[in-house]
Amino acid sequence: MDTIKLLEIAEKAKENAYVPYSKFHVGAALLTKSGKIYTGCNVECASYGGTNCAERTAIFKAVSEGDKEFEAIAISSDNPGETYPCGICRQVILEFGRDIKVIVGESKGKHTVFTIDDLLPKCFSGVDLQK
Ligand SMILES: O=c1ccn([C@H]2C[C@H](O)[C@@H](CO)O2)c(=O)[nH]1
Ligand SMILES: [Zn+2]
Q1: pLDDT at position 104
Q2: Does the keyword Zinc feature in the UniProt annotation (predicted)?
């Protein structure tokens, strides 16, 4: 599965975004190490704190189905520039591995690949709880 294909799947997942408040559509495509893909979109709520981002939707779908080993996650949004995961999603991505490739989409298939070390340096993680 190449990054462009994963990004295209994220772009398609964006169509299901439930965004009556922000009108900002986000889609994510999560590739597991076994080659399965889980998609996600953002789902908003009138009580705004109930909103779930596209990235976490995809990750929670996977985990709830028993998949926890991830290769990459691609993100696409209405933003013509790069779409980075928010802080909460970065923390959740980290929860499942430091080596997950985060494919940050831009328009027309342009993208950049990051690791969580790039996006969340000097972070708190489960390791800290074992000290
Ligand atoms: O990386 C991001 C950034 C924002 N959002 C969503 C949350 C909310 O529905 C809307 C505006 O913040 O975009 C995501 O799904 N992923
Ligand atoms: Zn988020």
Answers
A1: 94
A2: yes
Would you give the end-to-end CA distance of the chain in angstroms? 38
Q: Is 44 in the pocket of ligand 1 (CB under 6 A)?
A: yes
DSSP string, 32-85: ETTS-EEEEE-B--SSGGG-B-HHHHHHHHHHHTT---EEEEEEEES-SS--PP
pLDDT, mean of residues 84-101: 97
Alpha carbon distance 108, 66 (integer Å): 33
Question: How many whole angstroms from 131 Cα to the centroid of ligand 1?
Answer: 33
Indicate whether residue 85 lines ligand 1 (CB < 6 A).
yes
Structure tokens at 83: 């779409």
Catalytic: 71? no
For 39-62, what is each residue's pLDDT tens digit? 999 999 999 999 999 999 999 999
Task: Specify the CATH number for the domain of residue 118.
Answer: 3.40.140.10
Residue 35 belongs to domain spanning: 3-129
* Distance (Å, whole) CA 110 – CA 58: 22
